[in-house]
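Supplementary notes for students who missed Thursday's class. We covered one full example, reproduced here. Read the sequence, then the structure, then the short commentary at the end.
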Amino acid sequence: MPRKLKSKYRQFCETVPDLPVYMHAFYLDAVCEDGQWEVALVEKGGKIVAAWPYFLKKKWGFPYVAMPVLGRLMGPYLIPPYRNSVKENGLLEALLDQFPYLAAFEQDFNYQATNWLPLFWRKYQQTTRYSYILNVTDLAYCWNKIAPDYRNQKIPKAREILEVSTDDDLAEFYRVHNLSYARQGKKPPFTFEFLSKLDQALAARGQRAIFFAKDRESGVVHGVAYLVWDRQSAYYIMAGDDPALRQSGAGVLLAWEAIQYTHAVLKLSVFDFAGSMVKAIERVRRQFGAQQKPYFRVHKTWSTIWGIGKKILRS
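Structure (token representation):
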């Protein structure tokens, strides 16, 4: 039965209008490492009207649901005609009834999933988090909304030093992206093999672009960025720079170039900074005139042993 559900979901992904790229079967195939993705479905008249993919893992022998690395928006997805208070609750209950036994659950919901009342009734908890988005239909308007110091100083000065281009050099992207982690003595959040698998899946569908900000004279890479998109939005899911060259303004210039790319090349109206609750990063998003976009982080722990183990690991 699970294989049949996945097959149905794969077909469903290609037909619905506003399913986030993160919830597509091909994306889940690539990022659900050290576990597997599953899906709950509700059909009406032989047609899928509600779907809920989830990443199922095991730890200490306990099954649990978590967010995959480089996963963003998941949770329940209802087709547009069923997004109303009359129909939502029953569909969400039916989806929840299909979940297996779990020790714990945590997901970041997609923007369309604004009703978590049936989960509240089942003792789930919710935290509101924020991403930042821009409507890029009018690029001149976007430019004028950028903070004056970015618009009049940082971006023009960066353009004098740097040239931004797109390229498929994933190894160089990975190297520069990880320089900040190396400086802090931290392990990168994913391996090159993991990134390669995702990149191949996105590139095959023409749903990604890799940006490089290079010194105009020496060709040295100062910063990199990775943009993915679906039918509605472009998502700025990864960016990084060389800490030794940060004063060049590569990070700010790359973000603006990706915004222009979304408008001019992709012909999309929404640019999504793909969220961060980190204060310093949040400030940069606001400097671009981006608006807060709330989404839910929903979680629950059933197993007492699991909860104790997680507390020990955090201490």
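Commentary. The mean pLDDT is 91. Residues 45 and 136 are 39 Å apart (CA to CA). If anything here is unclear, bring it to office hours.
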